[in-house]
Design brief:
3 domains, about 50% helix, alpha+beta, Helicase, Ruva Protein, domain 3, Tetrahydropterin Synthase, Chain A
């Protein structure tokens, strides 16, 4: 099957991989776009995993306000070198992460950041609700597991569906950039404020 320039361009936009990688993936997949996409995502994950141990201390603190200043976000995103930290592609990623945080109000960066006490409370609530709904005792643990996974997908930034393409998570978006930039990318910290919102310290 003939591989068109349009196919290569589309695949490159979806994965952030190089032109040659996109062409090879499409050829190996006999022109099947979805197969080529899966292959490049897996390859990207492997490359991203290799780079994740590398030190990232350069980068940017991205500031974003929305709705005439009603919502404000500050996010620190790190890379390995100042050169990449100043690149348009990296700056675009930092901006996208700020938009994501403004739109979805995550509470944590990684799953590991959720305190055990918070998870225990969510398990308790999910179990009580399942019992209240009259669910059989045997399936309650599965219901609780599903509820906790959904909770994590909502409150953990890296697990959230990316607002511009819900077929990928924020972590997968970052992985694509890791492959394209050739450097480790780390979301270090973020803060989100909404006008009139009460903070935990004020409660």
């Amino acid at each position: 099957m003939a591989i068109t320039t349009e196919d290569i361009k589309k695949l490159r936009e979806a994965t952030g991989a190089g032109i040659l990688d996109c062409r090879t993936a499409l050829q190996d997949a006999n022109g099947d776009f979805n197969k080529a996409l899966d292959f490049l995502r897996e390859k990207g994950l492997a490359k991203a995993a290799k780079r994740s141990s590398r030190n990232a201390s350069e980068g940017v603190v991205e500031l974003y306000t929305h709705g005439n200043g009603r919502v404000g976000v500050m996010v620190e995103v790190n890379v390995e070198t100042d050169f990449v930290g100043r690149s348009a592609s990296f700056r675009e990623l930092a901006h996208e992460l700020a938009l994501q945080i403004a739109a979805t109000s995550p509470e944590y960066i990684k799953e590991e950041d959720i305190p055990q006490s918070v998870l225990d409370k969510e398990v308790q609530i999910a179990r009580a609700k399942a019992k209240e709904d009259g669910k059989p005792e045997a399936i309650i643990p599965k219901i609780v597991d599903g509820t906790i996974e959904k909770f994590k997908n909502e409150v953990v930034l890296l697990r959230q569906p990316y607002i511009r393409n819900e077929e990928i998570t924020v972590q997968q978006l970052i992985n694509q950039k890791v492959v394209a930039l050739g450097e480790n990318v780390v979301v270090r910290r973020f803060a989100r404020w909404a006008l009139g919102e009460t903070t935990a310290e004020e409660e």
